[in-house]
Amino acid sequence: MLPRSSWDGWFQPAIRLINRLKYPQKFALLSFVLLLPLALALYLLLSEIQGQINFAAKELDGLHYLQALERFQQAVLSLPPQASASNINAERLAAWQDLKQAEQTWGPSLKTEARFQALGQYGPQSTSAPLAKGPLLAALARLRTQVGDQSNLILDPDLDSYYLMDAILLRLPGIQVDLAAVVDLTPEGHLSPLQRAQLVTWGERIEQANQALQTYTTVAFEHNRDGQLRPRLESPLQAFGEELDQVTLPLARFADPQDTPSLPALKRQALQALRSSFPVWQKTSTELEHLLQKRIQRFRYRQWSLSLFVLFTLAMALYLFIGFYRSVMQTVESLSQAARRMVDGTQTQGVQLQTQDEMAMVIHSFNTVADALRLAEAKYRSIVENAVEGIYQTTVTGQYLMANPMLAQIYGYDSPTELIEHLSNIETQLYVNPERRQDFIQLMAEQGKVWGFESEVYRKDGSTLWISEAARAIYDPQGQLLGFEGTVVDITRRKQDEGEIARLTQQLQDENLRMSAELSVTRRLQSMLMPSEEELSRVADLDIAGFIEPAAEVGGDYYDIQQAHGRVRISIGDVTGHGLESSLVMIMAQTAVRTLLANGETDPARLLNAVNQTIYENTRRMGSYKNMTLALLEYEAGLLRLSGQHEELIIVRANGEAEQIDTFDLGFPLGLELDISRFVAEAQIQFFPGDIAVLYTDGITEAMNPAKEQYGLARIQKVVVAHRQQSATQIRQALIDDLKSWIHTQRVFDDITLLVLKQL
Length: 760
Known about the structure:
Layout: H1 4-20, H2 23-77, H3 85-110, H4 113-120, H5 133-150, H6 159-184, H7 193-222, H8 229-253, H9 263-344, H10 358-386, E1 390-395, E2 400-403, H11 405-411, H12 416-422, H13 426-429, H14 435-447, E3 449-458, E4 464-475, E5 481-490, H15 492-529, H16 533-537, E6 542-549, E7 557-564, E8 567-575, H17 580-598, H18 604-622, E9 628-636, E10 639-643, E11 649-652, E12 658-661, E13 682-686, E14 692-696, H19 698-701, H20 713-722, H21 728-743, E15 752-759
Antiparallel strand pairs: 1-2, 1-5, 3-4, 4-5, 6-15, 7-8, 8-9, 9-10, 10-13, 11-12, 11-14, 14-15
Helix pairs in contact: 2-3, 2-5, 2-9, 4-5, 6-7, 6-9, 7-8, 8-9, 9-10, 15-17, 17-18
């Protein structure tokens, strides 16, 4: 769970917006925000219901069109044989006019124009031309299919209405066409095998359609919510089904060539079933129409119910919103009046309102604040009267309006009243330098306040003291400057202390100059002890270049080179830390090494142990615990002998191969133990022409760039390998340049020492 501060951060934009609005605007905004999703949800819900109404209404349009189609099909299929030609034409034309009227009414929405025109090509509107019954029935079937597809009938969502649609759109029209085909069959003599096969086929189709009709209508009865379909349709459908059975049973016998049922009787039975199909179709259509109308009524009832409920809810919400708003505004007005009375000093009791909501907490808090303010006023008076600082209010022209007892005490008066009466012009009577008052007023005009404004002022007895003022300007509601108020502190003692500090500071600066001069002399002495370039150039068989740079005025790194009797002895060391103390230990080590080598001491163990004892005893005498690493490198006739513990020795061969010689097991840090001879060992390295040896201190490998990454051994090797064909001086310079680039602006924390040897 997020902490409270995190939640507050999330809601800051909303809080800032609400805080900028007045209560009517807040209620209007909240009402809009709440009503917007409600209106959207209501719109979507009503739109969905209206969509269902429109869906069912389009089904009704299709049903009405199908009713006209069915009347026309009845006129085409079921004319009585004894009817006159004029009556036949009149009935057919009347049905055609009804269908034409249906096309004009519902055809555009059902997109039946093309199918209707195709139907008209077969002359149903003619009174003289004979009907092409087969093509006409096929055109009627296509038109019926178009109506079913476009009127949503085939997509009906309820099982009862869906299966009634199936009956009037598919099953009954198909049965009628097949029955009419049986009735119209007129064989010449005996039935041909093809005619017998047609009769069997019609019988099978009628039987399948009858079974589907009975099964599906049963499902419709079972899923009819008001239970009205079964009593209205079950009997007519069962009776019609039995009539169809009277037709399909003889038709099935035609499958046996030896069996020949009476064709005239069969045709009479088929004609009777055909005539019965039309009332069944009409009753089924009527019930389907009732179902669709009821569905539309239910949806409209839902629309009105939902709308009335929402309107009632909105009315209640508006009523409560207005009551809530009036309640809040009454509380706010009561608090405003109480605040004005509090300012006037006439509010002596807490605010009382008949409310138990969160506003009661506000009122309680207001009363608490009011009580606290009354107490705070009393405490303020006590604080002002007993403050350890002088507190005042003055006019712009320099008269005191208010002063506390401490201010009177600071200035040497017996009471604030005496101070106010005596000091009528601050500029001339208070300030030793009258211009300080003008400086005070100018700062107030520019900044509106002053802090730490120090001045020398007069006391009542004429003596002087130093004060520090902190004050601010006082303005009226129109922004006009009325005066100043602030505090005064006696800083006479501090001013005296500042004079003493200034004297001591000057003395310290003089001492620093003296110490700086001594350090400069020490640094020059230290640099004089390092081998010169001329001394390095005289070393036989080796090209040597060195570099040393202390991190402070003086450092604790050193290297030295001595040559005698064909041997070159090189020493390099690093004292812990840097500065004057480290440089003294370095000088001790350098002096001891040169002395021992000059007196013929060549054994590394004895030499390093003797230097160690000197440093150990001297640092203890100094009360210091400095220690150092020291490595001795001796070169003679292509052989390097290395002893003593220091950084790793880097060897870069002429072919670019690099080696690292670890010195950890070759010695021990000097100054930690009195006797280190048992730790000293020696390593020998073959040194060929073109080979390079690099000695260094950890000031190089541990130097950091601005990203706090160390320079490291790998970078030294990379630079040396890249410049191995150059002289020792050039290699040294390349290393130093790369190191400086690496360090960049980062501060150097340790001494840097580098020694490059290359065999000629």
